[in-house]
Amino acid sequence: MTSQTSNLPTAEQIRRAPKVLLHDHLDGGLRPATIVELARETGYDGLPETDSEKLGIWFREAADSGSLERYLETFAHTCAVMQTRDALARVAAECAEDLAADGVVYAEIRYAPEQHLEKGLTLEEVVEAVNDGFREGERRARANGHRIRVGALLTAMRHAARALEIAELANRYRDLGVVGFDIAGAEAGYPPTRHLDAFEYLKRENNHFTIHAGEAFGLPSIWQALQWCGADRLGHGVRIIDDIQVDEDGGVKLGRLASYVRDKRIPLEMCPTSNLQTGAASSYAEHPIGLLRRLQFRLTLNTDNRLMSGTTMSREFEHLVKTFQYTFDDMQWFTVNAMKSAFIPFDERLAMINDVIKPGYAELKSEWLFPKGVARSM
Ligand SMILES: [Zn+2]
Known about the structure:
The active site is at residue 215. Residues 18-358 form the Adenosine deaminase domain. One of its GO terms (molecular function) is hydrolase activity. The record marks 236 as: Important for catalytic activity. Catalyzes the hydrolytic deamination of adenosine and 2-deoxyadenosine. By secondary structure, the chain is an alpha/beta fold. The chain has a single domain, classed as TIM Barrel. It contains 17 helices and 10 strands. The protein has helices at 3-6, 11-16, 32-42, 52-64, 68-80, 85-101, 123-143, 163-172, 196-204, 219-228, 256-263, 272-278, 289-294, 306-309, 313-324, 328-340, 346-365; strands at residues 19-25, 104-111, 149-157, 178-184, 209-213, 233-236, 244-246, 252-254, 268-270, 299-301. The strands form 2 sheets. An 8-stranded parallel sheet has the order 1-2-3-4-5-6-9-10, sandwiched between helices. A two-stranded antiparallel sheet has the order 7-8. Helix 9 (196-204) links the parallel strand 4 and strand 5 (209-213). Mean pLDDT is 94; it is low at 1-5. Zinc ion is lined by residues 23, 25, 184, 212, 235, 304.
């Protein structure tokens, strides 16, 4: 074995590596078996499959189909079984457990409280149930030898008119498990500027927010999210590539907006597998993440919807390692970028980087020195 090949992380090492996740939807990450059980318990009879394995496949195929209607239908099913206190707490606890088992040490998980009111819960009850679930999941993970910390992001839907109310809710539960705010939903026809009152309120409260922008819709959406709304981070932001020119000889020229995003170190929440499913990119090799990484944008790597995309943080990294021959140094770069861009206080982010992330990668990088099965006592 040479040090050259040993430097490429194996799937098993990728799973053990400390990872940070900033863009993951609670209603996009349920275990198929849990959906089946919750549907039975809550009397929801709209599932397309009641066998959990077949249901998991159905979710991935619907998300892969290229049909927006089928893609949105997947969330109708997950939200339908997330309408009671116990169901929300269970889904949140399992989310934290699953991420911890995958080596995620810090995660910000987002959901839209307004989508969980069908059976009479109040917005506050939804937030408290999810927070309780995350704390329970953190405890169970610790009992299994994993450490994870999970913060919630409250999402408002672009097409609805409750953004200010949800922003106020995020502010009320700040330091009580909620770390920020997000806006999601169809970009076309629903510019983020419709919700300026919510963003202005959050800025006045010194609070943090990210905006889904530049996924399918192009540069104007990114520009509005940053320059009108003042987003701290961009959900996806992958279309920033439209403002970057690559010449035939490999020369690269950044437009004003792309320069601004890079100069100001605006974090981009990249979700490659999700982009492949929605058609925002055609292959991992052609995904803008390769070029944007070379140009040193502040990139983070994320899952978006683990259930619909059949993915995990480890799988996202596996694709990048395979496609771009990324090393542990690249993995650490993405992970430190994500931790720097998290919405928890600076001293806590720094401690995670210095006490958890860097030692974790140092340990992994040294493993090739001690091949398995070889005595170390020489
Ligand atoms: Zn998303």
